[in-house]
Amino acid sequence: MRRIFEQLPYFLPAEPAPFARLFLTEGIRRKVAKGELLKRGGESQRLFFLESGLCAYYAAEAENHRPTILSVLLPGRAMGDLTASVGTRCNVFTRALEKSVVRVVPPAVLTAALMKDPALAQLEIRSVIAKEESILEGMTANFIRPPAERIVICAKALCRAENVSPSSGWHRLPLTISAERIGEIVNLNRVSVARQLSFWMKADLVRRDGRKLLFSDQLFAAVDDWIENPVPKCPLPA
């Protein structure tokens, strides 16, 4: 699953507790509709904290581009903190994938806290590096991994990010996630993802329970990870 760093690909790590408390205390609560754009690419610093729902960072969001997700943001994650902490801009779009609740935080709240407490500043450095490692792991997977592996990695990383334990050899994805959305994450089109999932379902390697997908132990074990599974014991059926 991972090739370079310790962080999981595709799903950013949770915010350290001191920052989560800061954002919850200082932020203004706001409800966000599904599909709502929170921040445009190149826009000046804006800072959010996701209480509930689901959001994502998008790259190359334009009418003539297929949407590409850089990272998915689960509850407990900050959005815009990488640029807010240093006063820069980037061409990344922040969008709500589902109906969500966020805290809108003035960027000055973060910078003031970092200047006041050196220990907090060190923690922010570690947090920023971890997030960049996660983004790079996702980009690396999309660049060097074959399509089937990317789909499994996405499912496995999601289960790990949400601390999902297997049950009788099956890993139930904690989110309802469509083939189109998986494709946006792993840089594949909807048809390719749906075709691969259908192949695995016929082989009883993926199951559907209502709107949720379940992945088998066999699929998760077939993808290498430089820390936990450097040499898979079985090939990935694809």
Automatic annotation (TrEMBL):
Q: Which residues form the Cyclic nucleotide-binding domain?
A: 30-116
The record ties this protein, via Gene3D superfamilies, to: Jelly Rolls (2.60.120.10)
Q: Which InterPro entries match?
A: cNMP-bd_dom, cNMP-bd_dom_sf, RmlC-like_jellyroll, WH_DNA-bd_sf
Q: Highest taxon of the source?
A: Bacteria
| Protein name per its UniProtKB record | Cyclic nucleotide-binding domain-containing protein
